[in-house]
Amino acid sequence: MENQSEHFRNTLLFYYRKGKNAVQARKKLCAVYGEDVLSERQCQNWFSKFRRRLEGLPG
């Protein structure tokens, strides 16, 4: 399960860097892995973490 979680996180980071938003990224993940892959809220939380880390903020 850890490898799968890491894979999803890396895929979300890829879409974040491509300028997609969390909803768009989730839609792309769901197209490949099914609707139950991650919730919209989980994707939004990851995008928030990416944004904070890339701006040099803790968290």
Description:
InterPro entries: Mos1_HTH. Residues 6-52 form the Mos1 transposase HTH domain. The structure is a single chain. The chain has one domain: Arc Repressor Mutant, subunit A (Orthogonal Bundle), CATH 1.10.10. 73% of the residues lie in helices and 0% in strands. It is built from three helices and no strands.
Outline the secondary-structure elements.
Blueprint: H1 2-17, H2 22-33, H3 40-54
What's a concise summary of this model?
The chain has helices spanning 2-17, 22-33, 40-54. With 59 residues, the protein is mainly alpha-helical.
Distance between the termini: 23 Å
Total beta strands:
0
Give the low-confidence spans.
none
List the total number of helices. 3
Question: Largest beta sheet, briefly?
Answer: none
Quaternary state, please?
Answer: single chain
Shape: globular
At the first level of CATH, what is the class?
Answer: Mainly Alpha
CATH architecture: Orthogonal Bundle
Strand content: under 5%
At the third CATH level, what is the topology name?
A: Arc Repressor Mutant, subunit A
Order of helices and strands: HHH
Class by SSE composition: mainly alpha
Radius of gyration: 11 Å
Mean pLDDT: 91
Count of domain modules: 1
The helix content, as a percent range, equals: over 70%
Protein name: Mos1 transposase HTH domain-containing protein
Domain Mos1 transposase HTH: 6-52
InterPro entries: Mos1_HTH
Keywords for this structure?
59 residues, Arc Repressor Mutant, subunit A
